[in-house]
Amino acid sequence: AQKVTQAQTEISVVEKEDVTLDCVYETRDTTYYLFWYKQPPSGELVFLIRRNSFDEQNEISGRYSWNFQKSTSSFNFTITASQVVDSAVYFCALPDNQGGKLIFGQGTELSVKP
Amino acid sequence: GAGVSQSPRYKVTKRGQDVALRCDPISGHVSLYWYRQALGQGPEFLTYFNYEAQQDKSGLPNDRFSAERPEGSISTLTIQRTEQRDSAMYRCATGRTAYSGANVLTFGAGSRLTVL
After folding, report:
1. Looking at residues B33-46, what average pLDDT do you find?
2. Could you give the C-alpha distances from B58 to A26, A66, B43, B44, B113, in angstroms and in order?
3. pLDDT tens sequence for chain A (114 residues)
4. What number of CA atoms fall less than 13 Å from residue B51's CA on the CB side?
5. Do B77 and B20 form a contact (C-beta atoms < 8 A)?
6. How sure is the predictor about B101, in pLDDT bands with cuts at 50, 70 and 90?
7. Distance (Å) from the C-alpha of residue A80 to the closest C-alpha of chain B?
8. What's the confidence (pLDDT) of residue B100?
């Protein structure tokens, strides 16, 4: 069965620090997708990124970057020069191989202090 | 609509009452998912539909929970004889295609259920 582990429950940083959120997954699929979602204090779930297991190149989008390592089953998320608006709960997710459901990790709550 | 709309946003009910939560998907989105999220936890899958067909209901906790999507658009999640342990955020998400591991889900704002 698919499993996603986000070992960091809470992280607190000061503005402008870099921070990395860890995600480790388990799957028997040879090809799969991985996702990150953000849940800001307002409560909605916002899609951030989808990666295909074929593509192990790191992805960068502004201050956000993702490091996908198939060999270690990890898909880590780094925020560079964090800002207070980055404060949120971040979820890593993996589709179930039996159907369309996303399996979410427990989430990492990031607090960025001014 | 432009986004996934859920109603009511907040529902407070007494134990034993039935509740119905509604999800209005993005126009044209084929797949529709229901999730439940307890405080401090990640969303937990309940059930999903492709068009009007319920494809998987393995996440529904017991037979008090049911869902329908009769015309392949609006969906209703019904909880009968509510219990305090049913208190949670119930989220609806929709996707452009039928199951594909690549499906990007768009989530609604959720319905916060409190059972007294």
Report:
1. 94
2. 20, 32, 15, 11, 21
3. 789 999 999 999 999 999 999 999 999 888 899 999 999 998 899 999 999 888 877 888 899 999 999 999 999 999 999 999 999 999 999 998 766 689 999 999 999 999
4. 1
5. yes
6. confident
7. 24
8. 72
User: What is the phi-psi region of residue B102: left when phi exceeds 0, alpha when psi lies from -120 to 50, beta otherwise?
Assistant: alpha
Can you list the positions of beta strands (E) in A10-99?
A: 10-14, 19-21, 24-26, 33-39, 46-52, 59-61, 64-69, 74-79, 88-95
- What's CA A76's distance to the chain center, in Å? 6
Mark yes or no for CB contact B45/A96 under 8 Å.
Answer: yes
Q: Which residues of chain A have a CB within 8 Å of the CB of B101?
A: 29, 31-33, 95, 97, 100
Give the number of A-B residue pairs with CB atoms closer than 8 Å.
69
Average pLDDT, chain B: 94
Q: Which residues of B touch A105 (CB under 8 A)?
A: 42
**Comparing C-alpha atoms, which of A27, A23, A19 is closest to residue A86?**
A19
| B25 and chain A in contact, CB less than 8 A | no
Let me know: does A43 contact B89? Beta carbons within 8 Å: yes
Tokens coding A54? 């074929």
Question: In the predicted model, what is the mean pLDDT of residues B24-33?
Answer: 94
